[in-house]
Design a protein that fits this description.
Layout (H helix, E strand, L loop, with lengths): L2 H14 L5 H17 L5 H10 L8 H9 L4 H5 L1 E4 L2 E4 L13 H20 L5 E5 L5 H9 L4 E6 L2 H14 L3 E5 L13 E6 L13 H4 L4 H4 L8 H13 E10 L5 H10 L2 E8 L5 E8 L2
Parallel strand pairs: 3-4, 3-6, 4-5, 6-7
Antiparallel strand pairs: 1-2, 7-9, 8-9
Helix pairs in contact: 1-2, 2-3, 2-4, 6-7
The protein binds glutamine.
InterPro entries: DNA_methylase_N6_adenine_CS, HemK-like, N5-glutamine_MTase, PrmC_N, RF_methyltr_PrmC, SAM-dependent_MTases_sf, Small_mtfrase_dom
Catalytic activity: L-glutaminyl-[peptide chain release factor] + S-adenosyl-L-methionine = N(5)-methyl-L-glutaminyl-[peptide chain release factor] + S-adenosyl-L-homocysteine + H(+)
Function: Methylates the class 1 translation termination release factors RF1/PrfA and RF2/PrfB on the glutamine residue of the universally conserved GGQ motif.
Length: 296
């Protein structure tokens, strides 16, 4: 079957099972199969052009991979890749797929680290330390390192399988990040008051709320999703507590949460002694993270 027709049919099939991005997913699956076959990278644009011009054949295995996607296996598990800021991360079963809304946390981290770097320069100091508590695939830790060269970065992860993905991503990117298999709520003993930035995208879904997308409910590790209490904030609270201990005076803590948790998160930050507590909105204007500075 010509590629253009195979793509139309796949898009229809995926839309029927509720995957709104069916057409894009089908094109990305073709790109993945062609790249695997040829070696190297193939963009979605090349697939679209090849389908339109009739210069690209429908790859072998397309039907099977579309069937897997139709059964709601996440696109990122099928391609093995997730994109986060400037990174191409390797992902699969056993690790949380990084989300675009988490990317915005890095803007706040970068602003703070750049300010600190200037202050350090003036004071003749050169060490900057950043920590990602519950790093999963390593997305936030690796981005902090990539976008702040010279910063010492630690990614803490309790799940062994997730830490393996993070370690693999660290090796593949060649970024100088240390992945530590530790409980984020007790991480980095001895580092109290010495960290410039702590960032976290913790598990925060209320235990009673099951995510509606099967890609999330059935394929993201539940350990990365559920916050351990009815309001979803038990684990985030323990992580925030540890962050308050690790962060140096004047240091920054940024944490993602659900939209409905914004007020509770702001109260939690203030209670833990963070100052200038501020809600961060995602690109669609929803209150999805909170930041605060440790008292000087
Ligand atoms: N953001 C997740 C989701 O979309 C929830 C858990 C998390 O990010 N830590 O399902």
């Amino acid at each position: 079957m010509p590629l253009a027709e195979a793509l139309r049919e796949a898009a229809r099939r995926l839309k029927t099972v509720g995957i709104e991005s069916g057409r894009a997913d089908a094109e990305l699956l073709v790109a993945h199969l062609v790249a695997t076959d040829r070696g190297g990278e193939v963009s979605r644009g090349e697939v679209m052009a090849g389908a339109a011009a009739g210069t690209l054949d429908t790859p072998k295995g397309f039907d099977q991979i579309v069937a897997a996607r139709a059964s709601r296996v996440p696109l990122q598990h099928l391609t093995g890749r997730a994109y986060f800021r400037n990174l191409t991360l390797h992902v699969g079963p056993g690790v949380f797929i990084p989300r675009p809304e988490t990317e915005v946390l890095i803007d706040h981290v970068n602003a703070h680290l750049r300010r600190r770097a200037h202050e350090n320069e003036a004071a003749g100091r050169d060490r900057l330390v950043a920590v990602d508590l519950a790093t999963g695939s390593g997305a936030l830790a690796l981005s902090m390192s990539q976008e702040n060269p010279g910063c010492e970065v630690y990614g803490v992860e309790l799940s062994r399988s997730a830490a393996e993905w993070a370690t693999r991503n660290t090796e593949l990117t060649g970024l100088p990040v240390s992945i530590l298999v530790q409980d984020a709520t007790r991480a980095l003993p001895g580092w109290e008051g010495r960290v410039d930035v702590v960032v976290s995208n913790p598990p925060y879904i209320p235990t009673t709320a099951v995510p509606k997308d099967p890609e999330v409910a059935d394929h993201d590790p539940s350990m990365a999703l559920y916050g351990g209490s009815e309001d979803g904030l038990a684990i985030p609270k323990d992580i925030a507590q540890r962050a308050s201990e690790l962060v140096r005076p004047g240091g920054l803590f940024v944490m993602e949460h659900a939209e409905v948790q914004a007020e509770a998160a702001a109260r939690m930050f203030s209670k833990l002694g963070f100052h200038e507590v501020e809600t961060i909105h995602d690109l669609t204007g929803r209150p999805r993270a909170t930041k605060g500075y440790s008292g000087v």
